[in-house]
Amino acid sequence: MGTILVAVILAVIVGLIIYSMVRDKKNGKSIQCGGDCKHCGGHCH
Q: Tens digits of per-residue pLDDT, 14-36?
């Protein structure tokens, strides 16, 4: 029973992370680049 509970909790956490990444992508935020070129040395363009 404990194993199933831990698996469900982990699945929920992973689902929330994926949902957050998809939402950020739709809002124009890239997963790889935050749009702040001073931190990546200007390699964004």
A: 999 999 888 877 776 665 665 56
**pLDDT over 80 (residue 45):** no
**What letter does residue 29 receive in the DSSP assignment?**
-
Distance CA 25, CA 4 (A): 31
Which tokens in the block code for residue 43?
């390699």
Handedness of CA 27, 33, 37, 42 (dihedral sign): negative
The enclosing H or E element of 39 equals: helix 37-40
